[in-house]
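Task card 7
Instruction: Convert sequence to structure tokens.
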Amino acid sequence: MLTPMVAGGVVFPGLFLLSKNTLQRLPQLRWGEADAVIVSARLVSSVQAVMASTAGYIVSTSCKHIIDDQHWLSSAYTQFAVPYFIYDIYAMFLCHWHKHQVKGHGGDEGGTRAPGSTWAVARGYLHKEFLMVLHHAVMVLVCFPLSVVWRQGKGDFFLGCLLMAEVSTPFVCLGKILIQYKRQHTLLHKVNGALMLLSFLCCRVLLFPYLYWAYGRHAGLPLLAVPLAIPAHVNLGAALLLAPQLYWFFLICRGACRLFRPRGSRPPSPCQTQD
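Output:
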């Protein structure tokens, strides 16, 4: 178990440092540290997403029996990905820190910061990214032990499908980078937004009904009968995993409405809607 975790602990922070240093030193770019940190963090998240989705596809398509079939990659990648979630909490904090500095709240570079400014930034980070930090913590402290110990080698098909939820992450990361650099009105951002919306809907929201349907087909049950046929704690776990996905999907839909709304158009007033 330690070998994949050690490998993940080297690969993800190492890729982040390599990307950051490359972006800062390339003669064509010469980016500042803030830009390099933000883009490198998004790049590492995208790489992890591609790796997780690929592993999930291999596992899910290799398991013909959705309960008993096993694939070595399901356990290996789960262990490999644990350090990523720990690293990403820190990487997100670095991004928040540099955005805070760029906005001019951190004092002049090289100057003396006000006492407690670091704690103020940390509190702001936890307030802004609370749901994402909680999601990462749950993945490490709850989902990882459950997938390694509680499953006892069962259900690799379902784990593979859950890994494929990461398909939407590269589109999310690219969208954040484009917004960061004021490119939200470009064609690339609109195309990426449409792909992000579609991939998030299919791979994170509709994924859970699909898993229930797959189990129902295996057990010879209609979809609506599946929740009553499986243990209550499985339904609870699925609901807890689905809830943040629905919230994030709502935010994506709200952003898409703003993105594709014609410039200068305003929502109709209440008086107009009542005519």
